[in-house]
Protein 1
Amino acid sequence: MTVNAMAPLVERLGDRFKQALQESSEFRGDLSIVVDPSSIVEVARYLKDEEGFDYLLYATAVDWPARDPRFTIVWEVRSLADKTRIRLKTTATMPDPHVPSLTSVWPASNWHERETWDLLGIKFDGHPDLRRILMPQSWEGFPLRKDYVSFGEPVIFSDQKLEGLEPDAIRG
Amino acid sequence: MGELKLRDKPFLTGRAAGPTPLNALGENVLTTTIDKVINWGRSSAIWPALFGLACCAIEMMGAVGPRQDISRFGSELFRASPRQSDLLIVSGRVAIKMVPVIRQVYDQMPEPKWVIAMGACASSAGMFNNYAIVQSVDKIIPVDIYLPGCPPRPEALLDAVIKLQRKIRGEPLVKRSA
Amino acid sequence: MPFGPEHEPPTEWMELNMGPHHPSTHGVLRVRLKLDGEIVRDADADIGYLHTGFEKSFEDKTYTQGITFSDRMDYLAPPINNVGFVSAVEKLIGVDVPPRAQAIRVIMMELARVASHELWLGTTGLDLGVYSGFFYAWRDRDLALDLNEAYSGVRMMTSFTRVGGVAWDLPDGWLDQLQRFIDVMPARLDDFESMLTDNPIWHQRLKGVGVISAQDAIEAGVTGPVLRASGVNYDVRKAFPYCGYENYDFDVPVGANGDCYDRYRMRVAEMRQSLRILQQAVDNLPGGPWISADRKVALPPRAELSKSMEAVIHHFRLVSEGFKGPVGDVYAFVESPRGELGFYLVSDGTNKPYRMKVRPPSFCNLQALRKLVQGVLVADVIAIMGSLDFILGDCDR
């Protein structure tokens, strides 16, 4: 389905949620809407119950340190019957970024939101079990944030000396 | 489990690690013969532990499969319990969460035990120089054979097992032409 | 002490740890089971033991460098990861893929699908006691890996796609080798199936175990053969065709009961349909270029480098810096053997992805584990985990 066919959907959303719907855009055939954090649960419930978007694809967040608000949280859902997709976005600011959880609308977003908390540090209010999922429980820091420097160790080349490592005497 | 500190320098293995009970008695005819027999026995039936972590585990399974067949070389069975196995083939990338688990599995193996670091990720973290992957499993456990490849072919794993057998028997790892 | 239900001592639940080192967890998965005797009352899947930081790594590499990384996520079907990754970049930039490249991609993907399902059958059988099935599976999988190796040089991690097409053309004689594979596989599948499909032990282990209804499956977000076994007719290749799948004639198997046995039937039927697609692809393989002619994204052929200065400049730019994408975000998805594998790519106009989120099918399927294992025996947990067909590399990324 092309996005032109989705234009009535955007109109209906605009009529129903006047101030909450901040913007809607289309890029390469994907429809995205940006919603105010306080009304996102309502919009999500409307999309699920009345527009038929029943299948959650994923939930994640993007870190834009140069922007304010810093984080854009994204959920993408699909309507299996109509074969359409919509991307639901909202924003969160530092310090203590938090948005309402959509597990009450789409239970499948449980683990996706946990992963977003784990890697980006976004709290989801109302999530039944918000704890780290991919990193160890005692890990500090949020790896996928842009200010988290990810390194293993510096690479040492063969012309640099490595003390304490003699070659194994057995090697013939 | 307390906090596990990763070492900066790898463990040393083989003769570089110091005397073992077997050669502490010194070299004489009797111990040399027993030495040889025991080492022959140990090298001919190395039973690996089932320790597949990531993609290299699939090629490890390929080595067990009908075309390559690792049981020709004595590794008839992969034991699920580390307490019944001799060899730990660390096949795959080692994530930071997995570190205490690998250490515990290694500690549960009875002596004598050997480790093959299979693949680039186990030998030196491969292509992943980042927060999540331990930069080589030899920071956690001592490694006997490093096997490069991403993933190494099953034949390469068989080559590593053969080299390990030579190492156990005390022969040079690379046979010179006669 | 008298017997009878009214004299039973009070019981409490035991927590059993199916640790990350376990022969049947298909990778490093830890499941904490709460058992009431032999019956599971609750389960918590603890993942992250293979977390590699792929999404962070992608942010640091150009689009072409990222292709090699994408192989290692779902490591049982690397060609499908390649195509998914490159589809997202192509959707962002707006590059067309020539028909021959699309056909080559379809061939490699279907080969990967057959190889992955074969391995699934082998290892799930191994968990449930079918030790010989493992060797049948590897006999067939080695043939598919030989084809991979003849084409790309590597058995598993092919990295064969480039933005705008595929990296190389098919070598001479490859299509004959593929034809031999297609000819010999149906009989082998029959052989394998005859061992399992009507086997009473197989029925007892799998029928009625791990049932999930269509409504629950959609709510839980499961995908792939697990979703189709519950009766939901959704396959990305039919619903949103990509790479020319609309030109191939194949069926999508859909189950009725949503139990482990149906999922097994789904995957075997999918293997047969993949062979059908492969035969059609070989018969109708179009000629022409195997990569886009747009020099801004695809390397020029080597012969041109000695003749044209422009070609040298394009080559230099592409190899040193890569190409830049427009600002925006896209979501592209393919059908992997586990389900819908999606790539959400956010670009800020540079030559590297700003954020590449991978939607892994195994992550979504594993979420449903908690619901599926309530009230079953511990041995059934193994059967259910096997039938979900998750790969921890895909799940943890």
Protein 2
Amino acid sequence: MKMTMKKIHIYLFLAVMLIAAPSCKKFFDINKNPNRPTEGIAEEVILPKIIVAWANALPGASAVGEELVGYTTNAGGVSGWGSFISYKFTPGNGAALWSTPYDNLTDIKVVIDKAKADPNYALLGAAAKVMKAIHFQHLVDTYNNVPYTQANMGVEFVTPEYDNGPDIYKSLAELLDEAIADINGAGSAAQTLNAASDPLFKGNMTLWKQLANTIKLRLIIRGGDKVSFTNKTFSSDGFLAEDALVQPGYTNVDGKLNPVWSRVYTVAGAQVGGVWQQRVPSFYTLGFYDGNKISDKYRGNLVYRAYPSPGVNALGRDPGTDAAARVKTPNDWYISLAATPSATNYAAIGIVKGPSAAQPIMLASESFFLQAEGALRGIITGNVKDLFNRGILESFKYLNKNENGSNSSLFVNKTTGKLTTGSGTDIVAISSQNEFDEYLAEGLNATNRLVNYDLATSFEQRLEAIITQKYIALNNLFGLESWNEFRRTRYPVTVSPPTYPGTRYTSLVSLQSESTAADRLPTRYQYPQNEFNYNGANVKAQGGSGDGGIIDVFRDKIFWAK
Amino acid sequence: MAFSVLVFAQTRTITGTVIDETGSGVPFASISVKGTAIGASADAEGNFTINARTSNVLVITATGFSTQEVTVGSGSTVAVLLTRGEGQMIDEVVVTASGLRINKKEQGYASTVVSAEKLVQAAPTNVTTALSGKVPGLQINGVSSGVNPNYSIVLRGYRSITGNNQALIVLDNVIVPNSVLGNLNPNDISDITTLNGASAAALYGSRAANGALIVTTKRGSAQKPEITLAQTVSAQAVGFYPGIQKSFGSGADAFVQIYTPYENQQYGPKYDGSLLQLGHFPLPGGEIQKVPYEWNAKEGKLNFWKPALTSQTDFSVSSPTGDRGRVYLSGQYVDATGTLEGDKYKRTAISLGGSQQVTSIVNVDYSARYTKNVYDQSSALASIYELVLNSPGQVPVTRYKNWRVDSFAMPNYYYNEYYNNPYFIKDNNRTHTANDYLVGNLSLKVSPANWIDLLGRVGMTTRYWEGKNWQDVYLYSAYTKAHASSGTYKQSDIKGSTGDFRGKESTLIGDFITTFKKTNIENFDFRANLGVQVIQDDNNGLAASINGLAVPGLFNLSNNTSPASAGGDQFRSRSMGLWGELYATYKKFLTLHVTGRRDQVSVLDAAYNKFFYPSADLSFVASDAFPSIKNSTPINLLKFRVSTAKVGNVNIGPYSTLPIFNQGAGYPYSGNVGYTIDNRIVSRDLKPEFTYSNEAGFDLEMWNSRFMTSATFYTSRTENQTLPISIAQSTGFSQLLTNTGLTKAQGLEATMGIVPLRTADAAIGISVNYTYNDSTVVNLGNFDLPQFALFTYGDGTGVYAAPGKGFPALYTTTHLRDSATGKIIVDPVTGYPSLDPLIKYRGRTQPLHRVGVNLDAKYKGIGLNAVAEYRGGYVIYNNMGNTLDFTGAGINTVMFDRQRFVFPNSVVWDDAQGKYVDNTNITVADGGPGYWSIGNTRTNMEENYVTSGAFWKLRELALSYDFPTSIIGRGFVKAVTFALVGRNLFMLVPKTNVYTDPEYSDNGSGNYIGLNSLGQNPPNRYYGATVTFKF
């Protein structure tokens, strides 16, 4: 009996084992991610991220151009600056100029694909197409040939082939036409954009069409006769007449700072190290304000806190103990009226407006200068001088905007151009129009064809005036765009080889340049290390005149470059 | 407990246990009733059942032990103590994957047992260190420095490209996280069995492809209570510094050597002993610091790390409980300080282990341990090291310790304009961490009949951790800000931060095993096990932090100036294995062992989450099979073994099969959300990786075990590698998780031991083990990638998987070379080399060869034990080389005495010849910082920092003395041992390695070995003394 009991126990045990084992589907069905969403993300919340990611990346991208066009120079000695002063760019330089747009383009593709599948998403898709054109123009302008048709396809093309820059330009202009057509053709049932899904234009689709036209104008001007555009006309919506400002709700919270502000201070008010904090303006750029080339006391004071004597140097010069070349903490572009500037006593004006200021992705000023050039070249119709002057005025307007985007309520001294809070002789409220009017006559400006458009008589002189004024308007805001325009037009003019102090106001070229080009300047950035590592065959297939058959950053040019 | 007062004159069932002097069960002993044909054999734990009458005499025999006779009394249980016979061969017993013990003769695969005394001979605080050099095929890497270093434990090299390659750790038959091993009290361990290959471990399921370490803890003495008390005090000090130049001080100018009193770089003039100003500006009171311009050997940077102490107190009680049980209790307290002053580590461990025969058929085995460790460390290790290297040699670094009170040490007035005071950074950035480990298991074994055992086992491991890190506020004075250069740290106030983190991880394992035994069926013995194993892993953590402290010195999340950021994730996975195994032994000399296991896991898609894998091994004991060998005097044992196995390995965590969306670009902003698709794409049909391995080997023992040797040759290949391959960013993604790629490995593990001397008073044993392991990547599968990044720095330098190359493979940026001659191209004007942006293969980062040498000598009460280890045939990348060159602190920078030099082995373009010709006369433009400190000419060419990883290390050296009874008497104290111990006393490396310990890894205990950085402070050596009392 006892044995039997034992045996029953054994068999029972075995039976439990065998039954328990295979019958557990639910037991294993626990792999749903409780931490992150894997589905159900609406395109309405992807579009705003696309726009803000681009806006957030712009100041970092701008810094690259700032170094190249004289907006910033080295503040200290000449060791340790590397390619900043030697121009010897390696694949390690500027990785984000490549990775940020391609990363963002994946989300852009999600929205465009959705719109293709569901016409109700036409407006979102159109906005995404405009963003796509902006991203790819940036990529072509920086790298020339880049993956385009095979880009952002994930596993489908793990080593995407490159398309030629001019072909991409052509395709982008078509894409912008499509975007405008999509907006015009969207039915009344189509999902509309609003402040949450569109932190750029808050659902104003006319502004999106104007932005599309403006980008298309930029493509056509820059592509010139090297691109066979299919359609060089523009929709009747016109061009951007206001600053394209992205405002998702920037605020003084970690990760949510205005991206220009975060170049200066952390949320805790600690000074951010690097870049601006170790750089000063160049004599070359300062000369456009202090009368050496142009007089501009108002914008001088809006751009440089210690104007007329911010830290100043010539690129690649070792200033030794020269106190004049030292950074004025936290940096020369941070405007504060206090004797000791800090994160809490900012003037909310100029370039660094505040932690919650909106971030421009294109200035009205740039739009008008593009229109001026478009009219000059006969691409569009219009009065070049009016457009030129409007471009300058819009620059004053942007710099005079405060943290909320309205005209600053500070006051300004009419004689010195110094900002102030108080009152007194010559102290007036800020008025961009008045400042612009004064600018036209300030110092020797009236006789300067870079300011007085009527004095520019030849096509080249007019182009020089437009691009030079654009250079001033984009100072430390859109450095990369200034570099693009410089490489396309060779304006503003610079001399080479540089000497110090001889050419300090006339040359933006580094005294430590290792460039083998005649102008001692680099022509482009190298392709990024990531492509050499993971798409090596295709990046090498782009050829180049450098050692090993790769791109030479002193000789190989972007297709539109002069 | 079964108990009977009646004396039956008839046959009844007697149960008993056979134990040795240490209280461990003697497995498989033969028991017979004298004068009868009745016989039985003990199981692996030494338990037996036999039918006998009162006054019968039981004869107990076991190989390696003297025969013992016991008369059956009135009780129904007996305990038999066997003593080891002089010179007799012991049948080694090994633990197998199912947790069952088998005779080593039946084992068809390689394994190594490290005994308790061998483990703790050098009084380690971490048992992992104590395995180095002792087991063929086992590679222990001490991957970090500090008071609580991490180790990686790898058997037979790396096979999974991205998966966990670390050996499975099994503690008292329960799978535990590797961190548990490092927090065990080493003295609790009875032995560690290493199952080198997948064949051995197949039954542990999908985690066993990497082999396993089976740790068995003590269960107490079955004989008499024993109390042990031990105290160890050891000191550690830096044992290896990077090569530092001692002739040039502060300066940063190219072309000229100018003294700069506040410079971090060391490209100034040669030391001349003159008294020079140090620092940029005077104290507000006008005081200026002056120091002699000469290498400061007493207070200079190499004095920054100080010798530190570790105190370790142990006690244990080992005792029988009743007549059928035993118990072991222990406690340990470790208190250590680090060579980085202020770093502290404390560990308290208590444990309990025992077994109890509850009834004649029910046996309970249990263990429980609780370990608490607490450590307080600087959280800025890498910065600190960098700051020290950025201190010129004449600077009296150690004078700046009291930065709160000494003016020149205060960050405000610290001499160095660009790099802060390392003492300040060390004290101002701290992490405090506490871990609580709870590990317990309970197993119940029911043996209702001779032919069957039923075993149920529950194990749990839980780790709780919590910690706080903080950085305190430091505001620079207006005076400093006005005087300091722009862009230096002195212009940026430190606003402080703090963060709290806590979490829990736990593993629950349930096992049910049924064992069937049948002996002597037509010369065959059979044993079969059937099992079910269920595992559930949980892990969750929570962290919150604030940036900016409202009130200095208060490290609470509410002391914030802006909102706190917080996050937490939770993970759960389950798996179930159904397995079976069969041992069939023919005439005790030929054993065939087959296993099969079917796993089902929660982390893969339902279509792919069930998989089956088998293994088989064969053991042939030639010395038992052929009388001619058995009777030959010299050979005690000759065994051949062969095995083959397939093991599945699920190499992804929970929730990995679907791509995720994250909030991006700073979202959420004020109520609005913005999402971005993750940069990793995932193949939907992810399957497990499968490792196929084969091995063959032999074991030979001769001359009464005074000579023994064994060798194992193995091959393995792992397919279906689960790789998050890095892909070009132009694909829109940065990673693709997919099954692709194949790796293979082959190797040899050999040991040889000789005992040249063995007398009653003295013995010398020397054993050498050699491991050859060649792991390579065969292909990366579908995507035809040239190489796959595992762990890289910004410029692509790092370790990769690359087809046809050793694994892991080191790739670095290199100099641009002439393809015709392979020589470095230099610029015809500057004489400088330039960078080749395509990364190149530099070698494997895993040793091809390893040798361990163990010496054990004893003369009367004096013992000498030593372990040395060699590794070679691989390369490492020393990231700190970059800093050594940039700062000019490194010895390499004075290779040409800071003079201009012709770049060695370089070529220059010759227009006339239209090719590159040898450069014989173009010198570099600057032999100082212009070459050495600049990326484009020197520091970006990371091949400059690749060295051989070869080393010889004296891992352990212990000299012990057992006090004879003539001194301690025969009273209360039964034994006293005093020992002097040393660990890692010497490290010999090739001359080119002027950097650090090649074992260090920037990737911690992850796969991607071969890269080290400033995050690992200089390696230490340990020496100490330990005294042990037994009562």
